[in-house]
């Protein structure tokens, strides 16, 4: 029984791994059981079985892509601490993730946001929750940096979150569509400049600047 459960888990992970790669290029709506079955050399029933439906497979695919983003970008930030050190680590990891994306079509979350923003339903709701948590995490670190005196107290954290997110989305397009090799380093510089522009005074300059 234990062996069967482990085999089932491995099969499910394998299906989701292929689904993430295909959805990065074709979109979540482009995932079809038939195409996945052919790629995996499995029956259609074998592909959909671990999930129960195509919709649940799509949700599992989205969850995996979000988890990969969090592991690549948020985990290094948490390891660095809170506030400004966390933000600096997140920016570095974020830009590296954009440059060396594990997905064929760049940032999965950005692509899915464009695909799903006008399509109400469970997939959009799941993505909305994931993006909301991500933005809340950034806002919390900005607030922590303000409490530490590293960022100006009158800064609206949501303003800076929007600035950082906009830079990242622009960089993703520049990398994926325009083939701009400088996009990731430019994004990193612009993000750090955005942080530095909200320093409360000269005393904080040394803390916000990074090597």
TrEMBL record:
The keyword ATP-binding does not apply. Residues 83-190 form the Tetracyclin repressor-like C-terminal domain. Keywords: Transcription, Transcription regulation. This is TetR/AcrR family transcriptional regulator. The keyword Transcription applies. PANTHER family: HTH-TYPE TRANSCRIPTIONAL REPRESSOR NEMR (PTHR47506:SF6), TRANSCRIPTIONAL REGULATORY PROTEIN (PTHR47506).
